[in-house]
Write a structure and sequence with these properties.
Blueprint (H helix, E strand, L loop, with lengths): L12 E5 L5 E4 L1 H7 L3 H4 L12 H11 L5 E10 L2 E12 L7 E7 L1 H46 L6 H30 L5 E3 L1 H15 L4 E6 L7 E3 L1 H18 L1 H6 L2 E15 L2 E13 L27 H10 L4 E7 L2 E9 L2
Parallel strand pairs: 7-9
Antiparallel strand pairs: 1-2, 1-5, 3-4, 4-5, 6-8, 9-10, 10-12, 11-12
Length: 353
């Protein structure tokens, strides 16, 4: 509609409705938010857009009855088969008989971020409990199995000892491998932190040198540092291990691109201000990105990458990201990840003094 063409340039989503509650105009931002083209939105009833749009419908009805000039509220709008929308809605009564109501929807990005961090915190607690229980369930019988195999090896008949010892050695070696796995699972909770002043760029440079030593050909590690970032109190070895685990996963996903000579990992550091981490507000925080140009994280595990024993690679232990999350959490920080083919970005946020 020509009279609302100026709204096409707005970043927030705008819907204009007729007296029957049908959409007669939607700007491009609304098309993106609702994931429908204007042709499908046109003449759609407001009541059919969301599964729980009662409050939005109430606002529409009150606007029709001229009970207010505009009504503002935070809403969580549920959709069939899609993620719910966290929005700040503004319902405005227009002095136009054919189009009496305008609804503006602004996606509440901050609320989405807080909800996601809260889910990750809950997941981290569940991971700790799962790991602790799993480790204890494995450790006790593991010692018995290894000990029994050693005793059995001593009792083998001399004539068959060499041939049968291969089997007992398999048992002992596999028991030792599982013991190492259990120790890695328990490491973040078992080892005390060694707190000192940490320079994040020294951490990144250490990881960079380790990575280039392991992958000397076909991998470029670029640095995009903000050298004004101050030192902060933390455990340098834990932070090195966290960054190394993420970078190592990235490198393993880049094997095909290494053979072509265009594999790339970027270490990028910035400072963010007035950030909320785990429901606590901080004046300053370190913003560290580890970005690779690999194939991306498989969609099937994208929401579970920080779970223990979940791996997108054959032969992977599925512990690297779990341990990285545990170490960053011990620094009052959070890890987030965005991934698509050609770009995977792990973002680490840690409070600064």
């Amino acid at each position: 509609m020509n009279q609302f063409a100026g709204l096409d340039l707005l970043a927030s989503s705008v819907l204009v409705l007729n007296p029957q509650g049908c959409i007669v105009y939607a700007n491009p931002a609304a098309e993106n938010l609702l994931e429908r083209p204007f042709k499908l939105l046109l003449n759609t009833q407001l009541s059919n857009l969301f599964l729980n749009g009662v409050e939005l419908l109430d606002g529409f009805q009150q606007a029709i009855e001229h009970q207010f000039a505009d009504k503002r509220q935070d809403l969580i709008l549920e959709r069939n088969g899609r993620e719910p929308l966290h929005v700040y809605s503004i319902v405005t009564a227009l002095d136009l008989p054919d189009t009496p109501v305008l609804i503006e929807l602004r996606e509440n990005v901050q609320q989405l971020k807080l909800d996601r961090e809260e889910r990750m915190q809950d997941q981290n607690k569940e991971n700790k409990e799962l790991i602790r229980n799993l480790a204890h369930e494995i450790k006790n019988p593991l010692g018995g199995i290894r000990g029994a195999a050693q005793l059995l090896e001593l009792e083998l008949p001399e004539r068959d000892a060499k041939e049968l010892r291969e089997y007992t050695q398999v048992i002992i070696k596999e028991a030792d491998r599982l013991q190492v796995l259990v120790d890695r699972l328990l490491a973040p909770n078992r080892l005390p932190q060694v707190i000192a002043d940490v320079n994040i760029h020294e951490v990144c440079e250490r990881v960079r040198s380790l990575m280039l030593a392991e992958f000397p050909k076909g991998l470029l590690i670029r640095r995009d540092y903000d050298l004004s970032i101050p030192e902060f109190r933390g455990d340098q070895q834990q932070l090195i291990q966290a960054v190394l685990n993420i970078a190592h996963n990235a490198a393993q996903a880049l094997v095909m691109r290494m053979s072509e000579g265009d594999a790339e990992i970027i270490f990028k550091t910035r400072v963010v201000r007035q950030v909320t981490l785990a429901k606590v507000r901080y004046r300053l925080a370190l913003d560290l990105h580890i970005i690779d140009n690999g194939p991306g994280i498989p969609p099937a595990i994208r929401d579970r990458i920080f779970y223990p024993l979940v791996s997108g690679r054959d032969g992977g232990s599925g512990l690297g990201l779990t341990l990285a999350q545990a170490f960053i959490t011990q620094h009052a920080g959070v890890i987030d990840c965005e991934s698509r083919p050609g770009c995977t970005d792990f973002r680490l946020l840690i409070p600064l003094p």
